[in-house]
Amino acid sequence: MSKQFTYRINKGSIDRKLENFDRIIGEDLQERLVNLASYMVQSSPVDTGAYVRSHSIRPRGSSSGRMRSASGRPSLKGNPGAQQSQRDEAYGALVGDVLKFLDQIVEKDGAVVINRSPHAQDVELNYSVFAKAQLRLRG
Predict the structure, then answer these.
(1) What is the total count of domains within the chain?
(2) 33 near 111, Cβ under 8 Å?
(3) pLDDT tens-digit series, residues 73-103
(4) What is the pLDDT at residue 118?
(5) 78, 86, 98, 114: most buried by Cβ count inside 10 Å?
(6) Is the residue at 23 inside a domain?
(7) Backbone phi and psi for residue 58, each to the nearest 5 degrees, phi listed first
(8) Neighbours of 136 (CB within 10 A)
(9) Does the model's pTM come out above 0.90?
């Protein structure tokens, strides 16, 4: 006479655990991206505000994003209140990106941080905003 037993997988329980796991990953990712947004904004130079307001966070594979030109904009140097106002606006836009695209960022296994201002390369050469942010993420 043989003996046996059946082990039944509780798919509902596994699905609930996976959903909880996805939620935890999403929350952690959201927090990291919001912290990154804050760092990018605070470490960006502000002359006219065009550069700092051109930062975007999008799902991996995207090449779209905000683009502001400094052309025709007055310099805000010597006006810390106006500079902070530009930073605040940029931070709000980046947090909006994170909230809007979070599910897609998780689905595509990552995000791209992009700055499409016409002078982004020049600013990076002088201030290394992106290089410093990448180092901060790795650390």
Answers:
(1) 1
(2) yes
(3) 999 999 999 999 999 999 999 999 999 999 9
(4) 95
(5) 86
(6) yes
(7) -135, 165
(8) 13
(9) no
Within a 10 A sphere around the Cβ of 45, how many other Cβ atoms? 12
| Residue 131 is assigned to a structural domain of this protein | yes
| pLDDT value at residue 46 | 96
The helix or strand, by DSSP H or E, that contains position 138, with its residue range, turns out to be: helix 129-138
Number of residues in the chain:
139
Low-confidence ranges of the chain (pLDDT < 70): 1-6, 139
What type of residue sits at position 15?
A: D
Check: CB of residue 64 under 8 Å from CB of residue 99: no
What whole-number distance in Å separates Cα of residue 49 and Cα of residue 89? 10
Q: For residue 50, is it within any domain? A: yes
Cα-trace Rg, the chain: 21
Return the half-sphere exposure (C-beta side, CA atoms, 13 A cut-off) of residue 100.
11
Domain that holds residue 24: 13-138
Q: How far apart are CA 107 and CA 131, in angstroms?
A: 25
Question: Cβ(46)–Cβ(90) under 8 Å?
Answer: no
- Say whether 111 sits in a helix, a strand or coil: strand
